[in-house]
């Protein structure tokens, strides 16, 4: 299914895709609302969605399409390739991201790759995404280094699953003192739940470093 408000672009995509023996266009939509209405009746395997739609953003369309048909794959085809657009598309459920400036071969690769059950990120989009995670990792590492040595020790051991009593025995402090250090670490790192603590620890490799 093609979702783009430009008729000329849809016509070009249709010619490209239908020249391939394993691909066929089963429906087209010029607006996001039309795409959401159409998808249930045609059940496409893959939807190619433009982000710059006139009524609903392509991000929201992607989210709604995936809610309706979780098994359907969505490839975002956009003139934007900055990290904000890529991240928002992936978080909305997009399986692939391809800039409009790319080659026809890249788009065909994207369609076949997501249809096979894998994700496809054009190198430009992948670079933007990787840069974001590097920035986040650096930021979180700096925040962790702001903790005192004792807060770091308690945080590491807590992330590994040790109880306050077990941590107290290891560090020769009382369980109540352990709780105080953990709470201070949580406040400094802006963490509220244990699940957030574990994700933070995994992202920084804290658990691996401790095991080593």
Q: Identify the strand order in the major beta sheet.
A: 2-1-3-4-5-6
Give the biggest sheet.
6 strands, parallel
Count of alpha/pi helices: 11
Shape: elongated
End-to-end Cα distance, whole Å, is 50 Å
What is the structural class?
Answer: alpha/beta
Q: In CATH, what is the homologous superfamily of the largest domain?
A: Response regulator
Oligomeric grouping of the chains:
single chain
- What is the total domain count? 2
Low-pLDDT runs: none
Radius of gyration: 23 Å
What is the chain-wise order of helices and strands?
EHEHEHEHEHEHHHHHH
Number of strands: 6
Strand content: 5-15%
Q: Under CATH, the topology of the largest domain is which?
A: Rossmann fold
CATH architecture grouping of the largest domain: 3-Layer(aba) Sandwich
**pLDDT averaged residue by residue:** 87
What is the helix fraction of residues, given as a range? 55-70%
Reading off the top of the CATH hierarchy, the class of the largest domain is best stated as Alpha Beta
Describe the protein's architecture and organization:
This protein has 212 residues and is an alpha/beta fold. It contains eleven helices and six strands. The chain has helices at residues 7-18, 32-42, 58-68, 83-92, 104-115, 123-145, 149-159, 164-171, 175-189, 194-204, 206-211; strands at 2-3, 28-29, 46-49, 73-78, 96-99, 120-121. A six-stranded parallel sheet has the order 2-1-3-4-5-6, sandwiched between helices.
Task: For this entry, give a set of tags.
single chain, 212 residues, alpha/beta, Rossmann fold, Arc Repressor Mutant, subunit A, 2 domains, six-stranded parallel sheet, 61% helix
């Amino acid at each position: 299914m093609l979702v783009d408000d430009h008729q000329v672009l849809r016509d070009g995509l249709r010619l490209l895709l239908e020249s391939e023996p394993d691909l066929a266009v089963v429906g087209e939509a010029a607006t996001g609302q039309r795409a959401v209405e159409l998808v249930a009746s045609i059940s496409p395997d893959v939807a190619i969605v433009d982000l710059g739609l006139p009524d609903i953003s392509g991000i929201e369309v992607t989210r709604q399409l995936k809610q309706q048909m979780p098994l359907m794959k969505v490839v975002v085809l956009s003139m934007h390739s900055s990290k904000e657009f890529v991240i928002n598309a992936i978080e909305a459920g997009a399986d692939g991201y391809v800039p409009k400036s790319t080659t026809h071969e890249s788009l065909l690769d994207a369609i076949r790759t997501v249809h096979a059950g894998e994700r496809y990120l054009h190198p430009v989009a992948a670079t933007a995404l990787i840069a974001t995670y590097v920035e986040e990792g650096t930021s979180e590492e700096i925040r962790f280094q702001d903790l005192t040595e004792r807060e770091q020790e308690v945080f590491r051991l807590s992330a590994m699953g040790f109880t306050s009593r077990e941590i107290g025995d290891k560090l020769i402090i009382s369980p109540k003192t352990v709780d105080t250090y953990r709470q201070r670490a949580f406040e400094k790192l802006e963490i509220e739940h244990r699940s957030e603590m574990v994700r933070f620890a995994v992202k920084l490799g804290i658990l691996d470093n401790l095991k080593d």
